[in-house]
Amino acid sequence: MQVDVIIEQRFYQCSQKKYWTDNAFPNVFWQRYLRVFSAVNVVARVSQVEQPQPEWQRVDGENLTFTNLPIYIGPWGFVKNIPNLIKALRTRKSAKRCVIYRVPGILALFYHWFAMPANKPYAAEVVGDPMDVFAKDASTSALRPVFKWIFVNMLTKQCQNAASISYVTEYSLQERYPPNPKAFHTHYSSIQLSDSDYKKRDQYPLSKPYRIVCIGNLSQPYKGCDFMLETLAALKSQGLELHLDWIGGGALQPDMEQLAAKLELRDCVNFVGNLSQRAQINEILDASDLFVLSSRQEGLPRVLIESMARSLNCVATNVGGVKELLPQEHIVERDNVTQLQAAIAQMMQLDESQRLQIGLRNFDKAQQYHNDVLTERRSNMYQALLESDA
């Protein structure tokens, strides 16, 4: 049985009709569905390009196809593209397939309205929280309260009506958006960690300058790069020697580079851009003293787990399922420069044995997200959908 997966990610199709991604969901990601389903059809926005960029990764492949939805950005772009969106979705109305919504997202709702036969069961993979997306300190839109109400209610209903459901968190999102008691439900992350992604440190010397690493796409402001830069400036004003590597590019990178220059951080911040190879990212993680997640919203942040798997000390904002990963003393509130400044300064004061103890604790916690552990949960969720749709 084929499965349609409806996802908010934007992809690219080149002139050779091949599909690409610039940051997430390459071909290897979709193999998890092919363990259970005979084929996968990705329903997503697709932008047409002449040639892929060198750092992009291939998405399509054997038994992996696309339904191209019109490309749009923002609410007004969405409104203008509604007719074309509906037309594209209706092509799936009569297809024989199972359906999985990766939510929250408006595309799942429109697919449900215009592509789903009546009373057909579906599965949901809950990967984020609109309460965080449209929180007061995460969105500046004048329509923020309206969007928040719409998306929270939409996700609540999608969870209650799903025949099979998974959450990226162990308990955080489940408390806010409970599943139907009769539905199959489980939890797993989208992360893909194999043995080579883990490194158990046996020493943890302090670098000089103290090396901090952040990972986050700079297409949207919710990764909190500005927040991190402001905190770095506050630490530098204390006379502390620090260096920041920010991995991840996007449209906001020039603005962030200008902010770094304005804060007189040009000599201690390196904007690495997008890295497509896991080994390149691991090399930077292994050379760092601390990973900082400065996000204003997350589900269960994969980059945090990936850093923990390298035995790296970590500090993160209180978003999504972070409290399931780190102890409270390593969690700060969003956009609170004073708290993040204090947390980093405290980490810098630890001796090597204390740093190693924290790193190994993180390493052990990350073992719970090894692909061998998560594969069984994913397969069980997909199998439950197949049985409900039989």
From TrEMBL:
Top-level taxon: Bacteria
Keywords noted in UniProt: Membrane, Transmembrane, Transmembrane helix
Domain Glycosyl transferase family: start-end pairs: 200-354
Membrane-spanning segments: 99-116
Pfam families the UniProt entry points to: Glycos_transf_1
CDD domains: GT4_PimA-like
Gene3D superfamilies, per database record: Glycogen Phosphorylase B
Protein name, per record: Glycosyl transferase family 1 domain-containing protein
Protein's organism: Aliiglaciecola litoralis
